[in-house]
Amino acid sequence: MQNFSYVSAARPEEAVKALGRGCAFIAGGTELLNWMRLGIATPDTLIDIGGMEGHSRIERTGDHLIIGALATLNEVGEHPLVRAHATVLADACLKAASPQIRNRATLGGNVLQKTRCAYFRSETPLPWGCNKRSPGSGCAARDGLNELHAVLGWADHCVATHPSDPAVALACLDASAEVMGKRRRMLPMTDFHVSQVEAQAMFKAAGTGSLLPAHEAQIETRLARDELILAYHIPIHDGERSAYLKVRERESYEYALVSAAATVALDGGLITRARIALGSVAQKPWRLVETEAALIGRRLVREEISAALRTLFEQARPLAHNEYKVQLAANAALRAVLAAGGVS
Amino acid sequence: MIGRSITRLEGHAKVTGKARYAADNNLARVLHAVLVGAPIANGRVLSIDTEAAQRVRGVVRVLTHSDMPRFGAVSFPSAILKLPMQDDVIRHEGTPVAIVLAESLESAEEGAGAVVVRARSESPLVPRDSAGETPVRMGFGEDLNRGDVPGALQRAAHRVEQRFIQPARHHNPMEPSATVAEWFGDTLFLYDSVQAGFNLPPVMAAVFGIDAKNVRVIAPHTGGGFGCKGWVWPHEILAAAAARVAGRPVKLVLTRAQMYANVGYQPLVRQDIALGCDAEGKLAALRHDVVNTTSIVETWTEAATEISRGLYAVPALQLTQRVERVHANLPTAMRAPAEGPGSWALESAMDELALLLRMDPLDLRLANYAQTDPVHGKPWSSNKLREAYAEGARLFGWRERGQLPRHDGPWRIGFGMAACTMTTFRHPAAARVRLQDDGGAVVEAGTHDIGTGTTTILPQICADTLGIDVARVSIQHGDTTLPDAGPVYGSSATMGVGSAVMLAARDALAKVARLAREPVETLDFAAAMRRIGVAEIVGDGRFALPGNASFNADGAGTPDAMRTWGAVFLEVGVDPDLGLVRLRRAVGSYSAGRIVNPLTARSQITGGIIWEWGKATMEQSLQEPRHGRWLAKNLSNVAIPVNADIPAAITVHFVEEHDEHASPLGAKGIGELGATGVAAAVANAVFDAVGIRVRELPILPSKLIRDLSS
């Protein structure tokens, strides 16, 4: 670990203004410090935004739930408003990490964590290729041990998945991130993270001299380098229920093999609206839009939901060791939709 | 007092942070050492550029193989015979190629990051399913060919022939290995994290050409070992060497990542088992062929065939042990060695055979109970396995399991059982007991608290022998200036040093009785000492092995064969949609000699069951196929069980037993016994739940989903 300097910001404007080359924001610090220990990040300056007042609030404004970026995962997961109107997010938060980490980690930082790919998480000096760590060095996981890697949206330059649980719930809920850079803007959480295929397109479109990272593998979100997440805005739909399902080999403190977030609205036993997002299958939460459309007017039973999930098998592109993930994702999605609809 | 559940005497010191571990020793003028590991698994060091590292503020010196002094030749108990930093050859990734010494840990870490190692890389050997080669024998895991195995298998009414695989797994003790070394002329002090302090002096003496008497090891507390702190590993030698070169004390703490490549682990083990039996289930033949991975020049034999010599009465036996060389660090003993892997294969195969026979798996085991040692025909020193089976089955409700529900929401419920057994390893041990005229006593034994309860039960044994309250007994331990109490591994400490303490207390009482001219039976030692005006009496105790051997397995060379026994019964839930396996309850029932402290014994067994639950369902260390490096060297990509995985319903039962042939105390080993049988019982229960037989551990959701959806 290298020496760095530390400043703290009292307001977002101050934080954004202080941001220069080699700077990194820090709030809970549960992820950035890992990067610094492993040599994934070597910032010269840390800008501590953890003390900014008023940015951990959780409140209802009209038909939206607003969650400040500095709210911790435990605060979000246990908040009555979140539990009532965004159960899927509350559960995703409480199924993430460990109680100790959830007390530190913020919802703003959580969506910006990096992949758990073992090749990527190796200590410096990196013994193998990883375009995220060392642009142009290749992707050792592409033809290596990739049981835990992507089945959707990957490219040869990178096959990593994004590990965040809350991000899957936020994408499922059609939430938006309120971000601040030179100006404030709303960024839909379905578009916040990008798959490797999308990253390639962004990289190609941007051309030289852009503010994008040096390699397409390093483009993981649409958040600009000088932007800071302030809050999440989650639309509330009365009568809609949601559920989060996380599949992992152990019961707690483990990243998902696959996760599924679902919301369901029913009328007379028929589905009027459903949204499904899968986690740990791609570098972004993967919305099953075709399935969502196919579910409208269907009954909330295994057979009909399974039929609607068939498109997943057509779209998925498993790697050498992760074909199981497609079936597992379909099963998880089925279970999440049933749970959201009140069938356990 | 023996047989009572007293809580940890060392507990208060631990929870208040007073217990001093190796890295807690902050010596004046200490230099912090950080290792730089080889970046490749196979090849040679071309150059090591230390210039940038030397410029880091606080860095005092960077050592490489070119300026490291040449070491003297070492032998066992050095884990490694070919020591690192003596030449430019790289035989596994992460082997130390440089050491950065600095005034602070931060400087040493930064310096280590600035060392540039250039190496010529050749493609490494990785696990490849070869037939393996015959290892040099270590007196354990010998091949055996008795009776007509092929003929008996051919004639058998029922036959199971299967391959069982378990991946490599690392010990991952909570405390990483740490060594603080300080020289006073030719005298070496080591504050170390070890399971056997007395293993160090002979190795250090050989390395540095000094007298073993001049090496003192101080190690009262060790934060878990499980086998990876048993023998002497290179980092301990390198720390001492660096301290000698620098002329200052040196502290070296391995990082979690460095633990993966700088101490041992349990290797990948492939086992081919063939079982044949008659129509009633009586075993006629057993073939057990084992191949484990080991390093390029050093050999570890994972003696999984040991179980096939002892657990069942089989007339025809064919056992082979082979090793497959890979460019990885050397494996070592890990809770439980030999029978840990062996029971996974044999007890899975027995379950498969029971299914062919349509027989209760418990009845199949009872039908093949070994009345005597199957290989040598010797009587057992003690064996209450049938009582353990009966009591375990009763506590679990095994015979009535057909009436229990098979579904719980999305969960399918399965039941599985397996036998447990472990070779009895014995090590000699000495101890001293000092009687005080105020009625107190001090136990002195060069043993270590490694978390198992040793420093609770030794005072307990002493108090029991003396007939006093345990509160009146204190213990001095963890220092090689104390009597050589042997290692804390191989489940041998209670038996060995416990017996030595008992004998030392008896010796002290006998001395008081002699001096006071009183019969020992009615002696009040404190009153007698005060009457004759003696403030302290010292008793010595020694637990010796036949022929004064330094190690004994299985009671070899004695009239008796020695093992420990048991059975584990499990209920698991399997979610067939999601491939999840969860433990619902467990009963372990054991025949393991005299139980000194039921509370610490229960903790040991519970820990063993949890340990094997991890092996069964999640743990694996994968060697990256192209680079030869461990794919992941941290606990975020190598899962081990957490609290939420473990139900409260784990019942542990010990059969009343006293094995005076194994030790004067009547005790045997339990630390590893609990970590046998469980993985097979899990696989058997998973089969019972969903009809899928997994023969390659761990039983991950990916494997179940593959089979359930095809």
Structure explained in plain terms:
The complex is a heterodimer of chains A (344) and B (710). Chain A is of the alpha+beta class and 344 residues long. Chain A is built from 14 helices and 12 strands. In chain A, the strands form 3 sheets. A 5-stranded antiparallel β-sheet of chain A has the order 4-5-8-6-7. Chain A has a 4-stranded antiparallel β-sheet with strand order 9-10-11-12. In chain A, strands 1-3-2 form a 3-stranded parallel β-sheet, with no helix packed on it. In chain A, a hairpin with a 2-residue loop joins strand 4 and strand 5 (64-68). In chain A, helix 5 (87-94) packs antiparallel against helix 8. Chain B has 710 residues and is α+β, with helices and mostly antiparallel strands. Chain B has 3 domains: 22-123 and 171-262, Aldehyde Oxidoreductase, domain 4 (2-Layer Sandwich), CATH 3.30.365.10; 336-341 and 355-423 and 555-709, Aldehyde Oxidoreductase, domain 4, CATH 3.30.365.10; 426-553, Aldehyde Oxidoreductase, domain 4 (2-Layer Sandwich), CATH 3.30.365. In chain B, 26% of the residues lie in helices and 25% in strands. Chain B has 17 helices and 26 strands. In chain B, strand 13 and strand 14 form a beta hairpin. Chain B starts with 10 loop residues before the first helix and ends with a helix. The A-B interface holds A 1-3, 39, 116, 118-119, 121-125, 127-128, 140, 144-145, 147, 245, 247, 249-255, 257, 322-325, 327-328, 331-332, 334-335, 344 and B 39-40, 93, 106, 109-110, 113, 257, 409-410, 577-580, 582, 617-618, 622, 624-627, 629, 631-634, 636-637, 639, 641-645, 698, 700-703, 705-706, 709. Chain A: InterPro entries: CO_DH_flav_C (IPR005107), CO_DH_flav_C_dom_sf (IPR036683), Diverse_Substr_Oxidored (IPR051312), FAD-bd_PCMH (IPR016166), FAD-bd_PCMH-like_sf (IPR036318), FAD-bd_PCMH_sub1 (IPR016167), FAD-bd_PCMH_sub2 (IPR016169), Mopterin_DH_FAD-bd (IPR002346). Chain A: Residues 1-239 form the FAD-binding PCMH-type domain. Chain A: This is Xanthine dehydrogenase family protein subunit M.
